Amino acid sequence: MNGSRIAAVGHYQPAKVLTNEDLAGLVDTSDEWIRSRVGIRTRHIAGPDEPVDELAGHAAAKALAAAGLAPADIDLVLVATSTAVDRSPNTAARVAARLGIPQAATMDLNVVCAGFTHALATADHAVRAGGSSRALVIGADKMSEVTDWSDRSTCVLVGDGAGAAVVEAADEPAIGPVLWGSVPEMGNAVRIEGTPPRFAQEGQSVYRWATTQLPPIARRACERAGLEPADLAGVVLHQANLRIIEPLAEKIGAVNAVVARDVTESGNTSAASIPMAFSKLVEQGALSTGDPVLLFGFGGNLSYAGQVVRCP
């Protein structure tokens, strides 16, 4: 085998939907104020009895079913999350236990909003190196648990959910080379810190960085896959804010691509946003098998990671 591919994807969101009108009853805001600034209409919120590993487990089970696989077929579980409550056992181990996956290596990756694309690259590398034959890669976050619901600048943004992908060995590479990095001097621009931990960000700084510095980086990710942006059939960016997604996608130059806009109904779900939005595009039939799709995460730590994948 010379590479790896995504065999299937799946996603999960809690049943409770929080609308902009609901938020207007909590803080000084309105539907018009939220939609004009971030483009979000609704978001899904997990209950106190729905931990991150449960969200992750539901999404992973759907991806496994879509791939026609059993839990025993998985030998590596990677979970990208920044909202796990406990340090040990990690979320990946708890997902493996929920699904009955025996003897798999289990690891969490905390790269916040760019977590899934980092985890996907890690799985690709493990498969290529022979350390894994089939991996389960999950992005899951419960942002509602680290949000100050009296702060209208952040509480209007967040949602909860999970997305997952099954990565397996392939004769031809269908996950392109990753382009990843960070801007450490701006690491404090997006934070989840304190006791209890709370999400905070410097919104204008993040907006300027994302819309001016990231387009050439994303184009380089396409170059590494041997493609021009115009060759892309889909673009799935971290679903941070519609006012970031739309100009960033335009500046990348993916003129023929379907651009994921799941943020409008799901909010910012951090590491879950890319796999969840990707899974929805696949489920809706907006992408076809083999289509080249750019996945590009950015955010906390001012980290970024992107790669072009072939649609399962």
State the major sheet: 5 strands, mixed
Shape: globular
Instruction: Give Rg in angstroms.
Output: 18 Å
How many helix segments?
Answer: 10
CATH class category name of the largest domain: Alpha Beta
Low-confidence parts? none
Q: Strand order within the widest sheet?
A: 1-7-6-4-5
CATH architect. name of the largest domain: 3-Layer(aba) Sandwich
Terminal Cα separation, in Å? 18 Å
- CATH homology group of the largest domain: Thiolase/Chalcone synthase
Which bin fits the share of residues in helices?
A: 25-40%
Averaged pLDDT = 97
Strand content: 25-35%
Protein name: Beta-ketoacyl-[acyl-carrier-protein] synthase III
Pathway: Lipid metabolism; fatty acid biosynthesis
Subunit structure: Homodimer.
InterPro entries: ACP_syn_III_C (IPR013747), ACP_syn_III_N (IPR013751), FabH (IPR004655), Thiolase-like (IPR016039)
Chain-wise SSE layout:
Blueprint: E1 3-12, E2 17-19, H1 20-24, H2 31-38, E3 42-44, H3 52-67, E4 76-80, H4 91-99, E5 105-109, H5 115-129, E6 134-142, H6 152-155, E7 160-170, E8 179-182, E9 190-193, E10 198-201, H7 203-224, E11 234-237, H8 242-252, E12 258-259, H9 263-266, H10 273-284, E13 292-299, E14 303-310
Helix pairs in contact: 3-4, 7-8
Family: Belongs to the thiolase-like superfamily. FabH family.
Subcellular location: Cytoplasm
Domain Beta-ketoacyl-[acyl-carrier-protein] synthase III N-terminal: 107-180
